[in-house]
Specification:
- The chain has 236 residues and is α/β, with parallel strands linked by helices.
- It has 2 domains: 9-45; 60-220, Rossmann fold (3-Layer(aba) Sandwich), CATH 3.40.50.20.
- It has 9 helices and 5 strands, in the order H-E-H-E-H-H-E-H-E-H-E-H-H-H.
- It has helices spanning 10-45, 70-79, 97-103, 108-114, 124-138, 152-162, 176-180, 187-211, 217-220; strands spanning 60-64, 85-89, 115-118, 142-148, 167-173.
- Helix 6 runs parallel beside helix 8.
């Protein structure tokens, strides 16, 4: 005669809590993973794969430095008459207009008449703050925003939060590496996108909480950038 396990035995009581504890831990993690994956796909869907001309002119143009060919593309837009003035935000403190003129062909005339340099911004949030100050001083109500395609979603979040009354027109710069090979085939590009997605989510959370009157700046603030490259430096 065989003896069957009884749920009322000590072993039965011990097994149930362990099973429930495992479910309580695993289920939220699984939900969070799925949500993060869906969010990442949504983030990727915002990234443009080709550069297209802005659909309209604006009062001004702002370029956030740090990525491949951002400044030269912004200068081309200014030369084409898409904006009255250009703000180059995040210029290295040791750089001046002549440094940028040497690295961007045929820009000397524009640099002397229609370009302003911001040397104080260290990250995307301070880019937004300096851009707001610049736009308000000039009474600009519309801006073309020039930055890399992977950085554009976060830039728009920060800029629109800082300037809700200003129309923002994205001009996404697509780097050579992005055009030459799919992002999923490059480990470096994939890590860059994951990092940018995490910063984008943090910016979205901070902005939405701020709109509700909850200022978590100290907890969710973007860390200060590493020592900056020159404004025209190439980035991956």
């Amino acid at each position: 005669m065989s003896l069957q396990s009884d749920d009322t035995s000590p072993n039965g009581f011990a097994a149930r809590p362990r099973g429930w504890l495992r479910a309580v831990i695993v289920a939220p993690l699984a939900v969070a993973f799925v949500a993060a994956a869906v969010g990442f796909v949504g983030f990727l869907s915002q990234l443009r794969g080709v550069e297209t001309d802005p659909p309209q002119n604006a009062d001004g143009i702002v370029v956030l430095t740090g990525g491949s060919s951002r400044v030269s593309d912004a200068m081309e837009l200014l030369a084409a008459g898409y904006g009255k003035r250009l703000l180059i935000s995040g210029v290295h403190p040791t750089n001046d207009a002549s440094d940028i003129s040497r690295s961007v062909p045929d820009s000397k005339g524009l640099m002397s008449c229609c370009v302003d340099l911001d040397r104080s911004a260290l990250n995307t949030r301070s880019n937004a703050a300096e851009t707001r100050r610049w736009a308000r001083e000039r009474g600009f109500k519309s801006l073309i925003v020039v930055t890399s395609n992977y950085h554009m979603p976060r830039a728009i979040v920060e800029l629109s939060h800082a300037m809700p009354d200003v129309t923002l027109i994205p001009f996404a710069v697509v780097g050579d590496k992005w055009r030459d090979e799919p992002w999923w085939t490059s480990g470096a590009t994939f890590r860059l996108l994951l990092s940018e997605y995490a910063k984008y989510v943090a910016a979205e959370m901070r902005v939405r909480l701020a709109d509700l009157g909850l200022d978590l700046t100290s907890e969710l603030a973007e860390p200060a950038a590493a020592p900056r490259r020159p404004a025209t430096a190439q980035a991956n």
